Structures are given as structure tokens and as C-alpha cells.
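Record format v2
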Amino acid sequence: MNDRTQLLKGTLEGCILQVIRGEEAYGYEISEKLRMAGFPTVSEGTIYPLLLRLEKNGLLTATYRDSPYGPRRKYYRLTELGELALKDFYRQWRELVSCVDRLFAGNEGE
Amino acid sequence: MNDRTQLLKGTLEGCILQVIRGEEAYGYEISEKLRMAGFPTVSEGTIYPLLLRLEKNGLLTATYRDSPYGPRRKYYRLTELGELALKDFYRQWRELVSCVDRLFAGNEGE
DNA sequence: ATCACATACCTTGTCATACAAGTTAGTTGG
DNA sequence: CCAACTAACTTGTATGACAAGGTATGTGAT
């Protein structure tokens, strides 16, 4: 009925910002890292539009670089605005988690 | 840019099931309880369609009862299917939380 | 050379769902 | 009578995840 895709809404954007935060990364790499973090496979139809949107909104900047293994890669870096958005996301995320926890407190084991 | 509404996607459904789980409740009451749990005010344009959808999908059953204070209330109860869906939601929710936590582990304080 | 496969990026169209704004109704109190 | 609260519902809009498909480059096997 309701698959995980609805749960991901909004979360993914923040998680991608977090992945890029440490060091610049390109799309294909980001989806690998998310998979390694345990996320269900993130579709390319999800990730590329999202990256373009973040770039357009000024949270990311991009530069193309050649790859030794295939076509050139588009590396993304966080802007100042991106850092702020990331902090903001994490704050809101923690708040949501604590609300849900409060609601489910007492009957986890059932 | 991205307000909390996107973060709520999918989460709300499970939380409403959880509110109803303990004892039957009606829409207006549910939105109050969510607010008390710390959720940002949940719009009526959100909650009533959601309840109708859950009813239509067989996760909830409803009975009307008179109210001493206003128009009659529509009380919802969880079905077997609803209980299963709730368990399923919580499992997926915990999984998502642990993925995000894994990603952000190490630099919470910044 | 050719074919399969992995890498790498992008586009189009579809679906689910949260919300704003508005509608209809009942009750209570000034 | 009117305002305020309770209570449910409808319509229209925007967002964002995804499936499916397209383009292109490099590597290794046949």
C-alpha cells in the first residue's frame, strides 16, 4: 500500500547534502554511498533531478571532471547556503524523530 | 525552500494509526493529540482525506456518534489490517531513522 | 571488430500525499 | 442575532520519489 518512498520524502535531500558535505561527490558515487549507509536503492530518476534542483537553488555548485573509468563526472560541492540548509534539515529531522518517538513510547515491543 | 511538510510524508499515516491504536478516536481529536505530541499543526485538509483513505483501504472502520458539544463525531478503530500496517510502518520508520543516524554519526554537534 | 557490461548523466510522465482555502452543520454564550 | 468553538468534508495545488527510457564513454571477452 504505502511503500517506503513516501517516508523518504524530504529526507533524501538532507541526506544527500550530508554525503556531499564531507567532500565533493558525483551522482553515481552518492547513490552508492547511500546504498552503503543502508538506504534502499535510490533510483537515478530520483537522484539526478534532485541534484539539479539543489544546484539550481544554490545549495550546490558543480564542476565536470574526467573519469578513468567512463564518461566525465559531475562533482558537487556544498555552498554556504547548502551548509545552512543541511543544518536546518538536521534540526527538523531530529524534531520529527522525537515527536514520533514520543507517540510510540511505551509499546515498541509489540 | 523545503518546509517540514515533505518530511511528514508517509510518517503521518503511521502516526495516526498509532494514535487510534490505543482507543478509538475521531478526526478532530486526533489532530489535537498530534499537536500535543509536538507535531506542527496538522491541517484538516490533510487529516480528513487521510482518514477516509485509510477507511477505504480497510485499515480503519468508523462509526458515527453524537457529541455533547457539536455535530456528531466519526469514531475510527483499527482493523486487523490496520494493526499489521502499523507494525509495518514502525519497522520501516525505525530502519529509516537508523540509516539517517548512520549517515550523520560523528558530526551532530556542528 | 563487435558485443556485453559497467560507468555516468539526463529526461519524461506518473503517482502519492500534505496543505490552503472554502463549505456545511451543530452547540453555547453574549 | 452573532461570534466562537466543535466537527467533518471537498477542491485545487505543489512537491518529490520513481519507473522507464535515452545518450555516451571506457573495459574486457569473443
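The first helix of chain A runs from residue 4 to 8.
The mean pLDDT of chain A is 90.
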